[in-house]
Amino acid sequence: MQNKKIIGLLPVFLLFWTQTYAQKGYYQLSVGGGYEHFTQMYKSAGWNLNIDGKYHITDYWYAAATLHCGVNNGAKTEYHEVYGITEKYRLDNTLREYLLGIGSGFNILRDGNRWAYLHALIGYGWGEELKSEWGNNVPENVPVSFRNGLGGAISLGYDYQPNSWIFGAALNTYYIGDRINVSLNLKVGFFLSGIIF
Question: Which of 45, 54, 77, 137 lies in disulfide reach of 28, CB 3.0 to 4.6 Å?
Answer without folding.
Answer: 54
